[in-house]
């Protein structure tokens, strides 16, 4: 029943399903991660996350490992069975962000070339987001310009902290400036909490996608907002997965307590901003449903940040559940709202070519 | 306008407003905290939280400092102006949890005696929750029995971590067993993140009630659930403030990813539980609106955990906003739902005496 419902023809259905946070990796990156695991390089959060997926024999780890490196029959078959018409691929977490400066630069370039080829070969099914080596900002800007301008990639992926560093730090601002100038979105994706704050999460087995991911990523997004990144770059567009990593739920309290801190002068780093935190969520942030397919959080988040800012994602291969597509189809949207959720918002945010992808 | 609406007579209104997470402290505890601040004792999270409120000259810090120690005209005046008829008081964060074992034991006893006297003097306006010195579990159990049995206190307050330790640790189980046996709720209240995980939050000015509080407290609640505390004590009742510290928003993902971890065997500490995480939220947890008065999160949370588990709190003196009472009065409840939200659920959860408090 479920499969019959979700595998309808897009023309008949009235929209494509564009999945916007779909994880992928070249084999070379997987191999380098595996080498680092064996060599005990990269830190606790990296070992927790990638050690599991590169070495575990569990059915889930094998499924993820095989899905990540596929952009052919395996992935296309799962997309078809899951009713996904188009996938926006990006280098899976932690991306280049555990590599040395040189390796990060090389792997970003390799990943971008490889992803661009996948998209060129199958423009109806795939778009991609760029990776960069963040610790060398000058080269990162050039690589982003190349990936967007020459290779046709549609955004920039960041897997939260960069060896414990965050985008509120000035060293990364040239890359944000380039995103704004190129008018491509920055997708802020989870990673395990940085090694300075991971211990209590890790010891409880809660550092990964069950909980630590969303703490790490919401903290990162909030640091960006409260440090004034979006006052400096008011046209910077940021995408958050997992229903905004929980921030929409906290909108009122974030505004109330941030206002209190500004008035009391409790922290030197907390300053009056141009807008409320909720307004940044409503004006600079778009949100995807990766890993959060339940109707209630989706409907809730639309009310907080705006219906035109919440779009579909599957989070393949970490979440591959055709039932989750059906779950989101069951949301009591109007036809126009449903089309926006599954198709049109993604086209606008990532600047996809409607003809090339076969938009309805 | 707002004040006219919220200060109606309870009989005419049809229910009391019972505020369930109202912060208070004996002057002796405030003085001991202030001494520790001056002596540079107690750690980074304690200094961040209490250093501000005991020493800052800002209007907000002064308001909080004066409100905390009051159970007389000042607080009663604010309750009247805010339309709160009855307040369940508890020792404010971090409670006894930064003191030495001996001082914690003494201060818990002092706090319980003092709070019991406040409640005896004005049973219509005040109920209270007990404190204990957690690191000496044997004495803590006896003190809880005394506070509930002899003094008439209505629950046990815990301000999250106990010097970096959490209630999943066996050393604290006797206290949980006593809560279950006495049938009093455990209120799990925020504190700054423990000193092992506070750095990134603190450096960004985000360790307090704006964000770090909810990370710390949701982590604590989740550790309790995933470690099997509620399988061991299935009748233990836990209250979470701040709309469940965000956990209801994550219900689907918590269940999905926890299930994945159980199947893959990724962590030794993650085991199959008797129920889903959502079911513990629906069966062992009650939730208050402290600091989260916005209608949308309240309505959302009721849908996830059940309408009969979500009740009113103000979070005085940290949140003292009559407009927030009006905001919650504006929620499109039926009369019976509104009565339950403001009055009846609190009476049931804390076992309040309807006649003594003047329930409608």
Secondary-structure element pattern of chain A, one letter each: HHEHHHHEHEHEHEHHHEHHHEHEHHH
User: pLDDT under 50 segments of chain A (min length 5)?
Assistant: none
Structural class call of chain A reads: alpha/beta
Shape of chain A: globular
The tally of strands of chain A reads 8
Number of helices of chain A: 19
Commentary on this structure:
2 copies of one chain form a homodimer. Chain A is α/β, with parallel strands linked by helices and 360 residues long. Chain A has 19 helices and 8 strands. Chain A has a 5-stranded parallel beta sheet with strand order 4-5-6-7-8. In chain A, strands 1-2-3 form a 3-stranded parallel beta sheet.
Summarize the structure.
With 360 residues, chain A is an alpha/beta fold. Chain A has helices spanning 2-6, 10-13, 27-38, 44-55, 59-68, 73-82, 101-121, 137-150, 173-182, 199-203, 212-226, 229-232, 242-245, 251-264, 277-283, 295-305, 322-329, 335-350, 354-357, and strands at 18-24, 86-91, 126-128, 156-158, 186-188, 238-240, 285-288, 310-311.
């Amino acid at each position: 029943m479920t499969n019959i419902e979700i595998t309808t023809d897009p023309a008949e259905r009235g929209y494509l399903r564009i999945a916007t946070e779909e994880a992928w990796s070249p084999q070379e990156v997987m191999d380098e991660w595996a080498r680092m695991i064996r060599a005990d390089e990269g830190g606790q959060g990296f070992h927790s996350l990638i050690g599991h997926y590169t070495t575990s024999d569990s059915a889930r780890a094998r499924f993820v490992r095989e899905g990540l490196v596929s952009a052919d029959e395996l992935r296309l078959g799962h997309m078809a069975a899951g009713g996904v018409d188009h996938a926006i691929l990006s280098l899976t977490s932690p991306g280049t962000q555990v590599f040395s400066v040189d390796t990060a630069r090389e792997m970003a370039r390799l990943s971008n070339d490889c992803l661009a080829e996948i998209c060129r070969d199958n423009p109806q099914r795939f778009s991609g987001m760029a990776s960069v080596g963040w610790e060398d900002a000058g080269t990162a800007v050039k690589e982003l310009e190349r990936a967007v301008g020459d290779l046709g990639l549609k955004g920039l992926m960041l897997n939260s902290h960069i060896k414990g560093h965050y985008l509120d730090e000035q060293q990364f601002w040239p890359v944000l400036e380039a995103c704004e100038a190129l008018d491509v979105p920055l997708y802020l994706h989870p990673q395990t909490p940085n090694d300075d704050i991971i211990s209590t999460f890790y010891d409880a087995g809660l550092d990964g996608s069950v909980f630590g991911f969303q703490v790490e990523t919401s903290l990162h997004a909030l640091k960006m907002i409260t440090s004034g990144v979006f006052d400096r770059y008011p046209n910077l567009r940021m995408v958050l997965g997992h229903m905004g990593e929980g921030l929409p739920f906290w909108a009122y309290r974030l505004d109330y307590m941030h206002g209190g801190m500004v008035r009391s002068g409790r922290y030197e780093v907390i300053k009056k901003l141009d807008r409320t935190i909720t307004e940044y969520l409503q004006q600079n942030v778009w949100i995807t449903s990766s890993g959060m397919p339940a109707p209630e959080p989706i409907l809730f988040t639309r009310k907080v940040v705006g219906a035109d800012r919440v779009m579909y994602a599957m989070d393949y291969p970490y979440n591959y559940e055709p039932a989750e597509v059906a779950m989101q189809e069951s949301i009591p949207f109007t036809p126009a709202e449903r089309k926006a959720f599954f198709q049109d918002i993604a086209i606008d945010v990532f600047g996809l070519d409607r003809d090339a992808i076969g938009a309805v």
